[in-house]
Write a structure and sequence with these properties.
One of its GO terms (molecular function) is phosphopantetheine binding. The protein is of the alpha/beta class. The protein has 37 helices and 39 strands. It is about 35% helix and about 20% strand. Helix 8 crosses helix 15.
Length: about 1100
């Protein structure tokens, strides 16, 4: 017999059953979604028709949600024989396998699991009056008898078993005097971990307060009952409270699991193939700001934020949703996703959507208690700006497509992602919709026990769980959050922004048709406005004006010093003006001279002539030097200090917007890019720093930076503008830090302005007393380690220390952070706050201001911004942009704001890498490595498909990796660490990443065979279960294809092979390599040496052929 498609009348009746009698007025082309159809109803309809033999899918119905469209879908699918009923006999006293979601919950209870050590449970309190303990006791007992899963225990081999009776007390009654005692009970109960191994899967307590008040506490572990089952339990409890007699259920949860496994087999395989194709391209979880795990305090603490949408507000929101062809659930989900996107460093991410997937395989399935949930991983992509409704429609279409393949659960997809990426992958941000499932607590429950006044849920491997459900005819929207995983106050700000967006959507039509703008909280915007309120005086001076003024006023003062000589202001001015006499105004002049007084004179001479100087390092490859000359349009290159017989009478006056210098940096295309910096921009930086640090005629600066590096601009003009002197490091001593220290000591250097690596070299080389004269250290151009302020203070106790941030395109430095102590939470010295007449923004991919703690691109605006790139209008237009009447430079640097308005540098955007599909910011890894007390500096990179690192310091690779595990999530811990005496540096003193990369040999993947019998057995079992030819001692579990299910199988096999119960899933997840697992088992074994002995016997027996084995046994 084949199935028949429903008649027009039957189809309309089915729709009106779902949508109510008003749906009888539907036309053939009316959108059913606009009439209120939602995803849960779509799934119910698809399941119902499939059982009748009509092979229609969720996505097909969702794609054509009209009566006419459904009729076409049904016509195409009809004519198939109905699915035969599947009946499986199950011995319900025997252990049976866990469902997929149950297994995930069970694994997540383990302390060694990432984001684990948490029981999945739902806790509710009902505030009522005069609840009778005796009646409640009988009701609870009847509930336990009715539902086998309330008597279930969960064994340590990953299975479950229904016991004949519950061993723990069914009800606990408290007589309490006040609210404080009530809070203590709540605090203890709401985050409890029930002893599921002993059959404790729920806990009901009754607190009796004065004046007849009662408080019913109901806590259920979700291993035994999902959220829908929780409703059934409470409903049954209320009915048993009134009447203990109830018809028994003629069906069971173990039987359902067995039959469900068979009925979904074909669908599951099709869905698996679909998801397999998507796995390589799926994004990661939302990249939200997180507190390092080692700093989280109680990492398992869950708190709740909630908002109740009143019935009239719910009706308005639903009506607007339906007008746009959207379900209310998808509107709330999109608002949640928009809020996440505003706090995520990446606008493309995965949401974990639980699905209430209770398939009606039997008439009494709806009465059962158990875990019937599945999940879908929903890809959110808000990279492109679009209106709210366009984002919501795209997300709804994506969800319909994904849910159509939900037969292959999100739990299974995560396992596939873990295998693909070689490490455990989580989807810890969850959105759960229970709309159209009816009231959360029915009227009978509320009549018997009172109103629900406290609700909280928690789950393992979950950071944030947003839920929407029906309560008192309105909508209750909850966020359950791992509180200590996030920076203080952040979740409150996120939830407030989410709440504001939901409110706007219910009240304003415009909110649907426009993009969701910035969700930056007003208080944060005010802090940043204050930090950016930097307006100050502008002198209008040129770079060289101050020098020539001092030369006229005090020509005998010392301008330059070096190891064996010095030069006065008068002498230097005369030489510069003689060079200027050989040049013409507005000339573009190359300067290619070794470090020393001639180089300084040449630069001053070019500027005095009204020209622009372009540094060309004397060690530049000839081809690159020629490209610089061509791009810059250089008319003349100074390669010696040739001078005219007569000096120029006085410097040529040019406008402050004239280009003072063009500095060439490396371009991503291989073509060097020349940054045109006007006098105005550079002088803004110089004047701020000189005033801020009191730089004057008594100061001398160590000029260690190369002329083609922008820090040299301050070395020269910062000091010469103030009447101070420049201590020149000569060309032959550029890399000799010992010579620098001697120069500092012998020439009375008071100020050092350089990159951190060069300061580190100076500190290492200096002898006691050589640096005591330093009074100011300015560091920029790279990460500033938190160890440096203390190390400087040890040499020069009264020295001021500041970290500066900026780019060549924003005139040397743009931000400053003077260090007066290093707080424990600093990973590096932050960028700080803007200099005078400078402003900063941190923006997301859509150009919106990022909230505190959220990483985004740093934009710098104000007087320090360069004109652009020489001869490259396209690149200039791309990087230099207008916003709100101000010109900004898009730095390509990643930064974030702290709540006090401080900017923290996170690294270069082009230092983000993907390792097995997961985006990693190398700067964050490097900052964590540098926190190790024995590491002077660390650098991270990628070799093959592994994250790797190199460090300089007296430390072992494993010590570094172990330290990093305490600060970084598992996927950011380097798989291999190389220890070097020193990290190689570029000519500008930055880490030479290309040279470091040569130390990351590909031999890191070499196979290391197991040695001891125990190691051999573990490796053998791993290989057999993982389906690989062999497993080496140091092969990572997830990289070899492991997942939580296979971990459970491995544990079972090892227990059998080693004749022990001491092997647990916890052991495996705590170690993750054969070597570490063997070491842990050996350290923990109760009888030392026994496991190796048993392993040796096992290997001997395993090596025997079947004939040999039979012979031995006989």
């Amino acid at each position: 017999m084949v199935s028949q498609q429903p008649t027009a009348g039957e189809l309309l009746r089915e729709v009106t059953d779902l949508l109510g009698p008003d749906a009888a007025e539907l036309s053939e082309e009316d959108s059913l979604i606009e009439w209120g159809l939602d995803s849960i109803q779509l799934m119910q309809v698809a399941n119902k028709w499939r059982r009748r033999g009509i092979k229609v899918g969720f996505a097909q119905l969702a794609k054509r949600p009209t009566l006419a469209g459904w009729r076409e879908v049904l016509a195409e699918a009809a004519g198939v024989a109905p699915e035969p009923a599947v009946t499986v006999k199950v011995d319900e006293t025997e252990p049976f396998p866990l469902a997929l979601m149950q297994h995930a919950y069970w694994i997540g209870r383990d302390e060694e699991t990432n984001l684990g050590s948490v029981a999945a449970h739902l806790y509710v309190e009902f505030d009522g009056r005069d609840v009778d303990p005796a009646r409640l006791q009988r009701a609870v007992q009847a509930l336990v008898e009715r539902h086998g899963m309330l008597r279930a225990k969960f064994t340590d081999d990953g299975r479950q078993q229904i016991l004949p009776a519950r061993t723990q007390p069914a009800l606990v009654v408290h007589d309490i005097a006040d609210e404080q005692e009530l809070e203590r009970i709540r605090d203890r109960s709401s985050h409890a971990r029930l002893d599921v191994a002993e059959g404790e899967v729920f806990w009901i307590q009754l607190s009796r307060l004065p004046d007849g008040r009662t408080r019913l506490h109901v806590d259920v572990d979700m291993l035994a009952a999902d959220a829908l089952s929780y409703r059934i339990l409470l409903s049954d409890l209320a009915r048993f409270y009134d009447n203990p007699e109830f018809e028994p259920i003629g069906y069971s949860y173990p039987r359902y699991l067995a039959e469900h496994e068979l009925t979904r087999k074909v669908d599951r395989e099709r869905a698996r193939e679909w998801w397999q194709q998507r796995v390589p391209e799926l994004p990661a979880a939302p990249d939200l700001p997180l507190v390092p795990e080692s700093e989280r305090g109680d990492a398992t603490r869950v708190t709740r934020r909630h908002h109740w949408l009143a019935p009239e507000d719910r009706k308005r929101l639903g009506a607007r949703a339906h007008e746009h062809g959207l379900t209310p659930a998808m509107v709330v989900a999109t608002a949640f996703a928009e809020s996440l996107a505003a706090w995520s460093a990446q606008p493309r991410f995965l949401l974990n959507l639980p699905m209430f997937d209770r398939e009606t395989t039997h008439p009494e399935v709806e009465k059962l208690v158990g875990d019937f949930t599945s999940s879908v991983l929903l890809e959110v992509d808000f990279t492109e700006e679009a209106s709210f409704v366009d984002h919501a429609r795209a997300l709804q279409d994506r969800m319909h497509a994904d849910a159509a393949h939900a037969a292959y659960s999100g739990v299974e997809v995560l396992r596939d992602l873990s295998r693909h990426q070689g490490e455990q992958v989580l989807a810890p941000v969850v959105f759960t919709s229970a709309l159209n499932l009816g009231e959360l607590f029915d009227a009978e429950v509320r009549r018997c026990f009172g109103e629900a006044v406290w609700i909280i849920s928690q789950g393992p491997q979950v950071l944030l769980d947003a839920q929407v459900t029906e309560v008192n005819e309105g909508l209750l929207i909850n966020w359950d959050v791992r509180e200590n995983a996030f920076p203080a106050g952040m979740i409150d700000e996120m939830f407030a922004a989410f709440h504001r967006l939901i409110t706007r959507l219910g009240q304003e039509d415009d909110a649907w048709d426009q993009p969701v703008g910035g969700l930056l909280p007003a208080a944060q915007a005010a802090v940043r406005a204050k930090a950016n309120d930097t307006a100050g005086p502008r002198s209008g001076k040129l770079l060289h004006d101050g020098f020539f003024e001092h030369a006229r006023q005090n020509p005998e003062a010392t301008a330059l010093v070096w190891s064996e000589g010095s030069m006065s202001y008068g002498e230097l001015a005369d030489k510069a003006l003689r060079i200027a006499a050989t040049l013409k105004p507005h000339d573009i002049v190359g300067v290619s001279l070794p470090k020393g007084p001639d180089q300084i004179a040449a630069v001053l001479g070019v500027l005095a002539a009204g020209g622009t100087y372009v540094p060309i390092g004397i060690d530049q490859p000839r081809a690159r030097a020629e490209r610089i000359r061509r791009i810059a349009g250089i008319e003349h290159t100074l390669t010696s200090a040739d001078v005219a017989a007569e000096p120029l009478a006085e410097p040529v006056r040019v406008d402050e917007e004239s280009i003072a210098y063009v500095l060439f940096t490396s371009g991503s295309t291989g073509e060097p890019k020349g940054v045109e910096v006007p006098h105005r921009a550079a002088m803004n930086t110089i004047e701020d720093l000189n005033e801020r640090f009191g730089v004057g005629p008594s100061d001398r600066c160590l000029a260690v930076s190369a002329l083609d590096f922008d820090l040299s601009v301050y070395d020269i003009f910062g000091l010469l503008s103030a009447g101070g002197a420049v201590a020149l490091v000569e060309e032959g001593d550029r890399r000799d830090a010992r010579a620098w220290a001697e120069l500092v000591a012998s020439r009375g250097v008071t100020l050092v302005n350089c990159v951190p690596a060069l300061l580190d070299m100076l500190l290492v080389s200096a002898r006691p007393g050589e640096l005591t004269g330093l009074r100011t250290v300015l560091l920029g151009g790279d990460w500033v380690g938190t160890d440096l302020p203390g190390r400087v203070a040890a040499h020069a106790p009264r020295c001021r220390f500041a970290g500066l941030g900026g780019t060549t395109e924003t005139a040397i430095h743009s931000t400053v952070c003077e260090v007066h102590g290093v707080p424990a939470h600093w990973r590096s010295v932050p960028y700080g706050t803007p200099l005078r007449n400078v402003a900063c923004r941190v923006v997301d991919a859509r150009g919106r201001d990022c909230s505190d703690w959220v990483g985004g691109e740093l934009w710098i605006g104000g007087d320090g911004v360069a004109r652009g790139y020489r001869g490259d209008p396209e690149r200039t237009a791309d990087r230099f942009v207008e916003y709100e009447g101000r010109r900004w430079y898009r730095t390509g640097d990643l930064a974030r704001y702290w709540p006090d308005g401080t900017l923290e540098f996170l690294g270069r955007r082009d230092h983000q890498v993907k390792v097995r599909g997961v985006r990693i910011e190398l700067g964050e890894v490097e900052a964590a490595l540098a926190e190790h007390p024995a590491v002077r500096r660390g650098v991270a990179g990628v070799a093959g498909n592994q994250l790797v690192a190199a460090v300089a310091g007296a430390v072992t690779p494993e010590e570094v990796r172990e330290f990093a595990r305490g600060l970084l999530p598992p996927h950011m811990v380097p798989a291999r660490v190389v220890v070097l005496d020193e990290l190689p540096l570029t000519a500008n003193g930055k880490v030479d990443r290309r040279t470091v990369a040569t130390h990351w040999a590909t031999g890191a993947d070499d196979y290391v065979p197991p040695k001891s019998p125990l190691e051999q057995v573990i490796a053998k079992v791993w290989a057999e279960v993982l389906g690989v030819e062999r497993v080496g001692l140091e092969d990572p579990f997830f990289a070899r294809g492991g997942d939580s299910v296979l971990a459970t199988m491995i544990v079972g096999r090892l227990r059998e092979a080693l004749d022990t119960t001491e092997v647990t899933v916890r052991t495996l997840f705590a170690t993750l390599t054969v070597s570490a697992m063997a070491a842990r088992l050996t350290a923990d074994e109760s009888t030392p040496g026994r496991l190796d002995q048993v392993a040796e016997i096992y290997l001997e027996v395993d090596a025997l052929s079947e004939e040999d084995l039979e012979s031995e046994l006989s």
